Amino acid sequence: MKVSVKWLDGAAMEGESGSGHRVMMDGPPEAGGHDLGARPMEMLLLGMGGCTQFDVLLILRKARQEVTHCVVELSAERSETDPKVFTKIHAHFIVTGRGLSERRVARAIELSATKYCSASIMLGATATVTHDYELREADG
């Protein structure tokens, strides 16, 4: 896997993935940025959210669970001293569907956290990573 990050101006950067997708990153004005994009550490957290949600949805699809909507909200704490690594990360899943099995949702999240999500397992080397969920029944 290869990516590139091109410096634009101040703290603004444009990242390009190996698959050709681009994303803006920037810092706050007090750090020389223009606030044009997510902060690099936010990108790490977003990546973990995408990675774990992908796993959970794939596992639930294979379990024939009818998921109609899924959001994972992540919150993190960082060390106060350099390097300011993540020390705590919490992922809260809100899974909406029809007749969802609580046992299957819990198991899908556990499998992502312990076996499949490379991002959360890697970040777990420096941070305590926790997960929880809520189930919602879809309308209709």
Task: Describe the secondary-structure layout.
Blueprint: E1 3-9, E2 12-17, E3 22-25, H1 40-62, E4 66-78, E5 86-98, H2 102-116, H3 118-123, E6 128-137
Parallel strand pairs: 5-6
Antiparallel strand pairs: 1-2, 2-3, 4-5
Helix pairs in contact: 1-2
Protein name: Peroxiredoxin
InterPro entries: KH_dom-like_a/b, OsmC/Ohr_fam, OsmC/Ohrsf
Organism: Halochromatium salexigens (Chromatium salexigens)
Report the CATH architecture of the largest domain: 2-Layer Sandwich
Biggest sheet, in brief? 3 strands, antiparallel
Please give the number of β-strands: 6
Percentage beta strand: 35-45%
Q: Which CATH first-tier class of the largest domain would you pick?
A: Alpha Beta
Unreliable stretches:
none
Number of helices: 3
What name goes with the CATH superfamily of the largest domain?
Answer: K homology (KH) domain
Helix content: 25-40%
Q: What's the CATH topology label of the largest domain?
A: GMP Synthetase, Chain A, domain 3
What is the structural class? alpha+beta
One letter per element, helices H and strands E, the order comes to EEEHEEHHE
End-to-end distance: 43 Å
* Strand order in the largest sheet: 1-2-3
Net shape: elongated
**Average pLDDT metric:** 96
Number of domains: 2
InterPro entries: KH_dom-like_a/b, OsmC/Ohr_fam, OsmC/Ohrsf
Pfam families: OsmC
Protein name: Peroxiredoxin
Organism: Halochromatium salexigens
